Amino acid sequence: MTNERLREYTDDIYSCMRCGFCIAQCPLYENYGWASNNARGRILIARGVLENKLKLSDYIAESVFSCTTCDYCYLLCPSGIHTTDIIRALKCELSKRDYSLDSSIRILENIRREGNPYGEPKSKRGSWIRDEDK
Ligand code: SF4
Ligand code: SF4
Q: What domains, with CATH codes, occur in the chain?
């Protein structure tokens, strides 16, 4: 059963015309070079998940979670597809199905425990302020 959050973007997911304008500028695609590591690829994954036609795997999860949600693809998309929102919803869906990266879980635990993604102690939160500004 697909979660409601991903279903909210059904129109956007089906509106992707696969033009590929979003591909070359994706920093992750530059790094990995695989078709699944850019907005178009991740939207195709979202479509597969939405239609329950995709067998999930750690590789797919890594492709999705490697997206930094920098929003650059959204700025480039001529159709104005909410690429980053789709990818966020997809991450949420994969997490629900127990496909999360260890690093994501670690970040989540850090935020819950210390209120920041790095796991730095709350007591040190003012340590970056210069002494003369305290
Ligand atoms: S630029 Fe937009 S429409 Fe084109 S492939 Fe990327 S997400 Fe789809
Ligand atoms: S939001 Fe994700 S898919 Fe889009 S350009 Fe940034 S890293 Fe790539």
A: 4-97 (1.10.1060.10)
